[in-house]
Write a structure and sequence with these properties.
Layout (H helix, E strand, L loop, with lengths): L5 E3 L7 H12 L4 E4 L4 E4 L5 H11 L8 E3 L3 H7 E2 L2 H10 L4 E7 L8 E2 L2 E5 L4 H8 L5 E5 L11 H8 L5 E4 L9 E4 L6 E4 L5 H7 L7
Parallel strand pairs: 1-10, 2-10, 4-8, 6-11
Antiparallel strand pairs: 2-3, 3-9, 4-9, 5-6, 6-8, 7-8, 11-12
Helix pairs in contact: 1-5
Length: about 210
Amino acid sequence: MAQVCIEKISPDSPDIVLLREAARILSSGGLVVAPTETRYGLLARGESKEALAWLFEAKGRPEAMPTSLFVRNRSEIERFGEVTRLASRVIESFLPGPLTLVIRAKGVWEPQIVVNERIGLRWSSSSIIAGLLNETEFPITATSANISGRADAESITEIASAFGEKVNLYLDAGPLNGITSTVVDCTGEVPAILREGAISSERLLTSVKDMLPK
């Protein structure tokens, strides 16, 4: 494996120097691998055409499979997309946490972000992701740190073996094997579970049971 930059980071008390270095790399269009509360994510500047193209090339991911974005808070969710009553209930019940919310997008985005007028937003409970967002003024991608079509890797060593020098910085918080985030589309009257993960479809449907069509 080629020489890559791997730095240890605490998931509970992340080093601000490392977060600022990661933010600098993202600002310049580079790629960073960082831990979330579930698995490792591959991060890029979400409104940069060039950075997104590089991320999709590195992952071998088709543009028809969009990447989600990390958000800082509910206000940012409302800025990026249309929050319906159904979406609002899901936000109140499960976020921040391991859930990706799909809603109708607002504004103009690159095709790797919005497909069929929908955008995926991830309000993570990870201190590292929150800290990194505090050091940036742009959206950051929320996609898994794996080659498209392959299983998620648990360790930075495995991830670095796959991506090598295509990623500018790897933040290592030890092995991560948590269940991936649940992806739910809240653009209709009933939540559509696109991927069941850490939050079960049963819990989701129970949380909005009183809002569903009779």
